[in-house]
Write a structure and sequence with these properties.
Number of helices: 17
Order of helices and strands: HHEEHHHHHEHHEEHEHHEEEEHEHEHHH
Domain PARG helical: 286-402
Family: Belongs to the poly(ADP-ribose) glycohydrolase family.
Strand order of the largest sheet: 1-5-12-11-6-10-7-4-3-2
Structural class: alpha/beta
Pfam families: PARG_cat_C, PARG_cat_N
Organism: Pygocentrus nattereri (Red-bellied piranha)
Protein name: poly(ADP-ribose) glycohydrolase
């Protein structure tokens, strides 16, 4: 594949205004992905603009490799009546479960340099006293009455009647075509205008489809304070970037580029290294492509970076903690800011001791360090983006919204019924979830390790949609009651693999339709899950409430009727290196989505068993009309406490108990039908 070819083949747009479904239909078969190491091959840095309809390679689970089961051992008679298949009670922590067809790849977490903590669990002794999460809390001593027995017998009857599941079925639940997507489900947008809570950096009166937005104001307005971004072109910058320094970048030499960047970052001259750039130019690219990089791409990036006073004329506000603030800017303005980030020009952003210590890193100096193959593939992906935006100016807008909630739903009293669920082990959030609210499994510092070694779900999304990276410039670390919503970013690259096996594959032509504000109808929400040192931590009431509130913050849109809200495209949020239990996290997201009035499209990333288990649980709960909140009679039947001080926990305990009964009692029914 070539990074620089100019022959653009644009996908045919569908006549109904929806995104072309060349490879994004639910029935499209994903390509096989493996993580076995391949010989290093030179890739044409010609930044190919070929958009032929190659089959998109499916992204493996961003939260695999960890798939854990938490086992209940104190469930009374109904639990002991179920046969527990010990061999499958806990999945391997180092691989993604193969699909029935056996054509799935395996993720190798050992190849990741930033190794997560290994969490050990007691798994073999199923009957061990107090080995389940119930042991963490006082047990109710209420005597079992007639109602208890009746309820347990009812549950037994239900679990024995679970129908045989077709092991070849690739999805379960509601067909994905029935879930709402943007722009079809959205309500008309008001006229775009700036306000105290919404900063707009372009002339809204001149906004037209297909035309580059005009910056506002017309002349650069300087600011150097604690509420806006400190720009490299500010007169108060102590280390300004001189034009003549950048003009020297025409030389075909990484050393010249290095000297230029260090000339205005003198304090870091002895610590920064540019090994990754050297490896890219010596081993990763052909000689002609290196020449093209230095003769064409980098000089155009220099011009783009130096145009900041003409393109980014208005001070860019910082989206600080506890703010409800939106910022809308043009894709051209974002490209200008990212070009400056590439050349490491943003002042006071290279030290963790500066006033930006609670903000993510924005300058790309870490991307140039070391010789990791990850860095090489990241550079190829980002250079594909810069090739595109310097060849043809983008014409759209992107909105960044920091949403901070001061009050949350009272989970213990919610009478909300669960919404519809589509769950599949095939497909990806960005492809099959187009037009939906797409969850970024985020770090509290949005973007995570995108400019470093990180290369899992969030980092990959920030690479193929590089306009997300600019959020790191102005978004303070997310607090427990906050999320970041990004609307309008464009996908520029195709890729294959995951983590160590990640490869930039080709240019991608994004055909997602635009809304009235000229934003791509791609809405991404950054949600940071808690990281657990010990597996059982996540079942504590406070932890459960926090995750419910975090997901709800990302999903809810106050003042918008649910009929205008798209479904949520998500997956194993907060699992993997963060130590989350996949079934618990799935249930939490389903509950939060229901409270926010949204359906869910859940992607298990190759885990067919997880797909079946979550579907079984959702079916049982919806068939019984069990709500998100308290149902005292049902809870009392299961001998749970009548004190609802920590009610969300007991809801989860009840749900998981039911799920495990379903899992254990139906393990044999998947191979042979039972008489109903």
């Amino acid at each position: 594949n070539s990074i620089v070819s100019d022959n653009v083949i644009i996908q045919k747009k569908s006549t109904n205004g929806e995104k072309a479904l060349t490879s994004n239909s639910p029935d499209a078969k994903p390509s096989k992905v493996t993580t076995t190491s391949t010989p290093k091959a030179k890739t044409n840095l010609s930044l190919s603009l070929n958009t032929s309809a190659n089959a998109d390679v499916e992204m493996l689970s961003p939260e695999s490799p960890t798939c854990k089961n938490s086992l209940y051992n104190n469930l009374g008679e109904s639990a002991h009546s179920c046969t527990v298949p010990q061999a499958s009670s806990v999945r391997s922590c180092s691989s993604v479960e193969s699909s029935p067809s056996g054509n799935r790849g395996v993720v190798n977490p050992e190849g990741i340099n930033e190794k997560p903590e290994v969490i050990t669990m007691e798994t073999d002794d199923v009957d061990k006293q107090d080995s389940g999460i119930s042991s963490l809390f006082p047990k109710s001593k209420a005597k079992e009455g007639p109602v208890d027995i009746q309820s347990k017998q009812s549950l037994k009857r239900y679990t024995s009647q679970v129908p045989l599941l077709n092991s070849d079925k690739k999805w379960l639940g509601t067909p994905i075509e029935m879930l709402r997507r943007m722009p079809q489900c959205g309500q008309p947008l008001p006229h775009l205008r700036a306000s105290d809570s919404h900063k707009v950096l372009i002339r809204t009166d001149l906004l037209k489809e297909g035309e580059v937005p005009v910056p506002y104001p017309s002349k650069f307005r300087d600011a150097w304070d604690d509420i806006t971004v400190k720009m490299p072109c500010s007169e108060k910058n102590l280390f300004p970037v001189e034009n003549e320094v950048f003009l020297r970048l025409n030389a075909v030499s990484v050393l010249i580029l290095q000297d230029a960047i260090l000339s205005y970052n003198t304090a870091h001259a002895k610590r920064w290294d540019f090994t990754a750039l050297n490896v890219l130019c010596t081993d990763g690219l052909e000689h002609s492509e290196v020449q093209y990089l230095f003769d064409v791409i980098l000089p155009e990036m220099v011009k783009l970076a130096l145009s900041a006073p003409k393109i980014c004329t208005q001070p860019i506000p910082l989206l600080k903690q506890n703010m409800n603030q939106s910022l809308t800017m043009s894709q051209e303005q974002i490209a200008c800011l990212l070009a400056n980030a590439f050349f490491c020009t943003f002042p006071r952003r290279n030290s963790r001791k500066s006033e930006y210590s609670n903000y993510p890193e924005i300058n790309f100096y870490r991307l140039f360090e070391g010789s990791s193959p990850r860095k090489i593939e990241k550079l190829k992906t980002l250079l594909c983006y810069f090739r595109r935006v310097t060849t043809s100016k983008p014409t759209g807008l992107v909105t960044f919204t920091r949403q901070s909630l001061n009050s949350f739903s009272k989970w213990e009293s919610s009478a909300t019924q669960l919404t519809r669920l589509h769950i599949t082990y095939e497909g990806t959030i960005e492809d099959q979830g187009y037009g939906m609210l797409q969850v970024d499994f985020a770090n509290r510092m949005v973007g995570g390790g995108v400019t470093g070694l990180g290369l899992v779900q969030e980092e990959i999304r920030f690479l193929i949609n590089p306009e997300l990276i600019v959020s790191r410039l102005f978004t303070e670390a997310l607090d427990h009651n906050e999320c970041l919503i990004i609307t309008g970013t464009e996908q520029y690259s195709k890729y294959s693999g995951y983590a160590e096996s990640y490869k930039w594959k080709d240019n991608h032509k994004d055909e997602t339709p635009r809304d009235e504000w000229q934003r791509r109808c791609t809405e991404i929400v950054a949600l940071d899950a808690l990281k657990y040192r010990h597996f059982m931590e996540q079942f504590h009431p406070d932890k459960i409430t926090r995750e419910l509130n975090k997901a709800y913050c990302g999903f809810v849109r106050h003042g918008v009727n649910s009929q205008y809200l798209s479904a949520i495209a998500t997956g194993n949020w907060g699992c993997g290196a963060f130590g989350g239990d996949t079934r618990l996290k799935a249930l939490l997201q389903i509950m939060a989505a229901a409270e926010a009035g949204r359906d869910v499209a859940y992607f298990t990333f190759g885990d067919a068993e997880l797909m079946r288990d979550v579907h079984d649980l959702h079916t049982f709960l919806t068939d019984r009309h069990i709500t998100v909140g308290k149902d005292g009679s049902r809870l009392d039947c299961f001998n749970l406490t009548t004190t609802y001080e920590y009610f969300p926990y007991y809801v989860i305990e009840y749900y998981i108990a039911v799920a495990l009964l379903l899992i254990f009692s139906t393990s044999s029914s998947r191979t042979k039908p039972r008489n109903v």
